[in-house]
# Entry
Amino acid sequence: MRYSALRILWEGLTGNKGWTPTWRDAEPKADYDVIIVGGGGHGLATAYYLATVYGITNVAVLEKGWIGGGNVGRNTTIIRSNYMLPGNEPFYEFSMKLWENLEQDFNYNAMVSQRGVLNLYHSDAQRDAYARRGNAMRMYGVDADLLDQDGVRALYPGLNYDDARFPIQGGLYQRRGGTVRHDAVAWGYARGASERGVDIIQNCEVTGMDISGGRITGVQTSRGPIRARKVAACVAGSSSKVMSLAGMRLPIESHVLQAFVSEAMKPIIPGVITYGAGHFYLSQSDKGGLVFGGDIDGYNSYAQRGNLPVIEDVCEGGMSLMPSLGRAKVVRSWGGIMDMSMDGSPFIDQTGVDGLYFNGGWCYGGFKATPASGYCYAHLLARDEPHAVATEYRLDRFQRGAMIDEKGVGAQPNLH
Ligand SMILES: Cc1cc2nc3c(=O)[nH]c(=O)nc-3n(C[C@H](O)[C@H](O)[C@H](O)COP(=O)(O)OP(=O)(O)OC[C@H]3O[C@@H](n4cnc5c(N)ncnc54)[C@H](O)[C@@H]3O)c2cc1C
# Structure
């Protein structure tokens, strides 16, 4: 079914009886060309681009829970392409371009809103670092503006400019950054993939990998064995667990990241702001709630809920940036499991097992990467060579000393 304004009008006038399910809830077949493990944003996007760009439709997405129940439905919805390093910036800008055309492409309203992302700076050194980042972005043809304090004040008059411990001096602004309705991304990709023949199989956990003679032949699942020529793991926070089924250890730690929503209020935050003197970021949803978050909980965990010390830390960051926040009530908080890589950058690569592929290590920035990650993973699966913008996301980069360490914090997942 094609969605359009005319369709809404017609259904409204005829009792809304014509809507069909958004995607088919498929039963597993005995074998597939490609099995994608994990029905998050990245897994569903991979299935979608496999079908639409590479013409491969004998594909199953196996999801242990339900579509949208993982990080794709738990994140704070921020998209941006304000990276600096050569291995990263072209990839994230490719993603941004796919976001810009996504709703027309998959015919689904994902509420892509390019409301601007502003990274605040609070010292001369931080300004210089942001100027360098902005210049690097511009060299890749990406929009970046360095604002002074007056420029920031014009956008956000309610922040603490005058009596703060770390007064705001200015910010690096990417106008094309913004937010996207996160679970609609999962639903849109699921719908697009399903209507082209991809089987989306929920409540189907992969519990084992069938490997013989160094080649993958299929997977064991909670709904029985399924054969496949290629198996593509795409399970975000569960990466280490799933790849250990194939005997692999990854340079990844799993941590919880929490998010918070306040009671609804009148529009006061037009875009997305990140605080430069602490780990805190803030936007306002279309329903009026302030959506914010900060640091990961600093211990390894597979629990999808965090602890009070980080809640206190995040709220302190918010209060020092914008003291009036202290009057708002937090109405919801939740957690998701982050696959923190040791240099803060992801992997999209083949593995030592023929036919087994890995996509993960997205840390807390993988939502914005969803379209490019799916596209590049589909390219790798179809062609057995990396897409031009994802050549650096290799599993052996630590052995080669070719880390993509954007912030220079190395093996400290709580710092990137
Ligand atoms: C609180 C929070 C805020 C965030 N904010 C942002 C942000 O603002 N911007 C940004 O860019 N990124 C953000 N992120 C990061 C982003 O959400 C993730 O990097 C990204 O969603 C991960 O990819 P995914 O969507 O495929 O993951 P998921 O949705 O987690 O998908 C993985 C799926 O694999 C399934 N799975 C696991 N094991 C198995 C198995 N054995 N068999 C079958 N299925 C399995 C899981 O059930 C899950 O559905 C945030 C994350 C969190 C938690």
Remarks:
- The pocket of flavin-adenine dinucleotide is lined by residues 37-43, 62-65, 69-72, 74-78, 205-206, 234-238, 242, 257-259, 293, 336, 362, 364-368 (CB under 6 Å).
- The first strand starts at residue 31 and ends at 37.
- The mean pLDDT is 96.
